[in-house]
Write a structure and sequence with these properties.
This protein is mainly alpha-helical. The chain has helices spanning 2-45, 47-70, 76-95, 98-112, 119-141. It has one domain (22-151).
Amino acid sequence: MRRLWRSALAALSLVAFIWSCAAADLWLRARSAYRRAELYLSWQSDPGAKRAFFDAELARVEGELARDFSQGRLTAETMDQRLALARHRRDERVSESSLKYAYAWLRAASELHAPPESPWSAEARRRLPEIRRLWESELRAQGVRFDSYQLD
């Protein structure tokens, strides 16, 4: 009988530990998603910072490609193709709507990373309608036709 109680206690402890790890993971993911949304929102008001961020990322990729080329891992043609692709990706990221990504990250924080409810998922849920309205206004100003369901 005593061994049965020990086994039950061990099983309950294991379940509690696994649940705690999962909850901590979701809290941290919600925080990360919320912070990413905040970054995109800051870029909405300061597009120069957005460009600088992606320019730095491009410089890092260019450095890696130059290193690989100097070590003989890449041919000149392959390096030129990868550089062109990296520059194209940077240009696309800079031109895309910061509000669209802020909305997507807030949705992730509020829906994908809850429950358990965290301060970040609650704040994301609170800010979501406001950011959606801003994004819809941006789309209307650009003359983009959309239906409400297309934004979800």
